[in-house]
Amino acid sequence: MAEMASPEAPPADLRFRRRIGPLAAVRDVWRARELVRTLAERELRARYKQAMLGLAWALITPLALMVVFTLFFNRVAQVETGGAPYPLFSYLGLLPWTFFSTSVSQGGQSLIQNIPLLNKVYFPREVFPTASVGVAGLDSAVALVALGGLFAITGFLPRATSFWVPVLLLIQVVFTLGVTYVVSAVVVYLRDLRHALPVLLQMGLFATPVAYGIDFVPESFRTLYVVLNPLGAVIDGYRRTVLWGLGPDWGLVLPASISAVVVLLVGYLLFKRMETGFADVA
Known about the structure:
The chain is mainly α.
């Protein structure tokens, strides 16, 4: 005998079921691309409006860390750089890490910083973290100027295998978007995460091969490591292709790329599942 429905339950035809069509969701974001651009411009202006040095801070942050790593970390750990100058070696690690940390830090708080818009107008909510990732990308593009300066100062030229960089960059962006979507959605419901983010990102900096090489990670654990942290394979790939004239280590890059895609898909689906409660909780 079929189980009888509770008399207090709403009729089945009136129950709301959240259906997520990935293609439809992507189309919605594409239609809102002008909004993403506008939000990115607004965030960029707000971040540097009253800063005397303006966009120069996008250069100063990774350069300052590079100097610290060069003066202290390299002397203590004696990092193997494959013949490349250590400043270049560490800066190539700092560029993707700074992009990731800025995206997660700013994009993770983008929803709660735009509560008035969330409560008044409907549009795809993922435009907020997406815009923050775009701004972080612009900061990284500015920081490339310093990389060119380092090549000129050291006399060490990029290798011909640098053509692999766009592939590695794609993995980096995919993974960063996925993590940013997850963090931005969870922060709406769990505000304590806002305060924990700086600590977690600081820990992540030293858990990622930024100041050191991936050879510091035991070889037997390396594949699992890049699955959990695809940035490890991305940073190693940049160093291999730009500094050492080698191809990417596909034994690490392939698992990392699969992991990055899974993080993006799961992160986006989680974001859309939680999206219906943003306005109420915020």
